[in-house]
Write a structure and sequence with these properties.
Length: 321
C-alpha cells in the first residue's frame, strides 16, 4: 500500500535530503496564476523535496580562492542533473501504484524569457503579451509555481525574512523540487513561520548589493499562517549575486561586464567561470541570504546538519575599492 512513509523512504533512497508532504487544499485562496492545483486538476497532494548545497561548496568563495563549485555542483548540478533523476524515480513509484505524478524540478523556465519570471508582480498576473487562457475558467499558461510556498505547504520548512527557504536540516542551504500527485497522502504539519527565522537581519547586513530591504516586505496568508518576507529587489540581487559589488568580486570586470551589470540581470559575469548548464555566475556566494543566515542559524544550534567546526573562521575578505 502506498503511504507517505513509503514515498519519503523512496525519495531519500534516491537522493533527496529532506521530504515533506502536504494536502493541496492548503492552496485555497491562492492567486489563480500561481495556484499549482491548476497545473494538474484532480491532484490531491504535493511531495516536496530539499536537495542540499554542501556547506563545502561555499568554502572557496569564503576563502576567496575557488568560486566555481557553488555554481557548478550547487546550482547547475542540483537543478539540471540531480533533481530530475530523483523526481523520475519517485514519480514512477506513484505511477506504479496507479496515481498520476507531475514532477517539477527547479529548472523549468516557467518565467518569461526576458527575466521577468523572477518578478512576482509580473508572474502572478495574467500577461496577454505572453500567453492567453485556453478557456475563461483557466489561468494563462504557464502557471507559475512559487517553489518556496510549495515547499512550505508540504511542511518542509519556512520562508525566512531573506525570502530564502529555510529547513530545520540545512537552514537556507538547499534547492527545492516537488511532485504533484493524485494520490491522497497523509500530510505533514506546516512549520510555523518564525520557528527558524528570528528576523536577526544578518542577511540584510551581509547582502553585498543592498537587495534585501529592512522595512519593505511582502505579506501572504497560506495554510492558516501569515508569512512575511523582505520585498527583494530582484534587479539588485540579479547583479549582486553575480559579483556586482567589486569589493566582493576578485575577477576582472570588463566594459562588457559593466554594461551587463548596468542592464541586469543574472547574465553578468557569466564567462568568468566556465559555463556549466546555464549557471556559472553565482560569484558572490549568496553572502547574505545563504552564508550569513547559515552562520546565524548554526550559532543558534537550530540546524540538524551539524559540523565539527564553525563555517566562518576569520573576517570575510574584501577587495580594495
Ligand atoms: S539571516 Fe536572520 S533574518 Fe535573515 S532569513 Fe536568516 S534568520 Fe531570518
Ligand atoms: S544572492 Fe546575494 S545579492 Fe542576492 S539577496 Fe542574496 S546576498 Fe543579496
Amino acid at each position: 500500500m502506498l503511504t507517505s512513509e513509503l514515498i519519503k523512504k523512496e525519495a531519500k533512497a534516491q537522493g533527496a535530503d529532506a521530504v515533506g508532504i502536504g494536502s493541496l487544499d492548503r492552496y485555497e485562496g491562492a492567486p489563480r496564476q500561481m495556484d499549482i492545483r491548476q497545473m494538474m486538476p484532480g491532484a490531491k497532494s504535493i511531495v516536496a523535496m530539499a536537495f542540499r548545497h554542501y556547506r563545502g561548496l561555499f568554502r572557496g568563495i569564503e576563502e576567496g580562492t575557488f568560486f566555481t563549485a557553488y555554481s557548478a555542483m550547487g546550482y547547475a548540478g542540483i537543478n539540471y542533473i540531480y533533481q530530475p533523476l530523483v523526481l523520475w524515480h519517485v514519480g514512477k513509484l506513484l505511477e506504479d501504484h496507479g496515481h498520476d505524478a507531475l514532477p517539477v524540478p527547479n529548472n523549468f523556465p516557467w518565467g518569461n524569457s526576458d527575466g521577468s519570471g523572477r518578478d512576482p508582480e509580473k508572474t502572478a498576473k495574467y500577461n496577454p503579451a505572453r500567453s492567453n487562457p485556453v478557456s475563461p475558467d483557466k489561468p494563462a499558461p504557464d502557471v507559475f509555481p512559487h517553489m518556496r510556498i510549495a515547499a512550505y505547504v508540504a511542511g518542509l520548512g519556512e520562508i525566512g525574512y531573506s525570502k530564502m527557504f529555510l529547513t530545520p536540516q540545512f537552514g537556507p542551504r538547499q534547492r527545492l523540487a516537488f511532485i504533484l500527485t493524485t494520490a491522497e497522502l497523509e500530510p505533514d504539519p506546516v512549520i510555523k513561520p518564525g520557528t527558524l527565522c528570528d528576523k536577526c537581519m544578518d542577511c540584510v547586513k551581509a547582502c553585498t548589493f543592498g537587495a534585501i530591504p529592512k522595512h519593505k516586505t511582502v505579506k501572504v496568508h497560506v495554510a492558516g499562517e501569515d508569512i512575511e518576507w523582505a520585498d527583494i529587489d530582484m534587479k539588485r540581487c540579479g547583479t549582486g549575486f553575480c559579483g556586482g559589488n567589486s569589493q566582493h568580486n576578485p575577477f576582472a570586470v570588463t566594459d562588457h561586464d559593466k554594461a551587463e551589470f548596468a542592464e541586469d540581470v543574472g547574465r553578468a559575469q557569466r564567462h568568468k567561470l566556465e559555463p556549466v548548464y546555464m549557471y556559472s555566475r553565482a560569484l558572490e556566494g549568496a553572502s547574505g541570504c545563504v552564508r550569513a543566515c547559515m552562520i546565524h542559524l548554526e550559532e543558534q544550534g537550530k540546524l540538524e546538519n551539524k559540523f565539527e567546526s564553525k563555517f566562518r573562521k576569520k573576517k570575510p575578505w574584501k577587495m580594495p575599492r
